[in-house]
Amino acid sequence: MKKLLAVAIGALAISATANANWYVQGDVQHSKLKFTEYSALNKNKVTPRLTVGYKVNDWRVAVDTFYAKTSGNVDTNEHISAKIYGLGLAAIYDFNFNLPVKPYLGARLSLNVFDVENTQPNAFEDKKHTKFGYGALAGISCDLTQNLALDTGFEYNRLGNWEDTKVNQYGVKVGLRYEF
């Protein structure tokens, strides 16, 4: 019985890896950064993203990078700026209808570093925070060739919060994914 179970598990593992592929994806995202406390930082931005992932059947697991920089004037004496660096991990399910176009849904966890600077004396000291974030994504990918797909989608991320500030990012993206 144990040998039969071992053979069954081995066969399942081999069949799963038969459809496994590494991929790399580059996206350009038009997104809105929303700070609940520092409204001068609320800006629409075009941000790049690089993703490396692994696909098994209809599931994808991906690691991505995120960077955004924003700044604004609070009043004539105060200028505030922020840089956000992030590293994310996403689980994505592709709905495969045996067509070149595949919708997908996913969830994302991230580790984000915020570097916030304020020029007004005594307003607050420059702040550097590292926070966990979470998000959701949905979209459609279209196979252009056997290894290349055009990807479009929508994404929402809670990048983090501290004290009285919450930082959200949401937007639309377009990119190319190459499967090896």
TrEMBL record:
Q: Where is the Porin opacity type domain?
A: 52-180
Q: Which residues form a coiled coil?
A: none
UniProt KW Signal keyword: yes
GO molecular function per UniProt = porin activity
- Matching InterPro entries: OMP/PagP_B-barrel, Porin_opacity
UniProt similarity note: Belongs to the opacity porin family.
Which positions make up the signal peptide?
1-20
- Which keywords does this Swiss-Prot/TrEMBL entry list? Signal
| GO CC terms of this entry | cell outer membrane
Q: Which protein is depicted?
A: Opacity associated protein OapA
Q: Which Pfam families match?
A: Opacity
**Lineage in the entry?**
Bacteria, Pseudomonadati, Pseudomonadota, Gammaproteobacteria, Pasteurellales
Indicate whether Isomerase appears among the record's keywords.
no
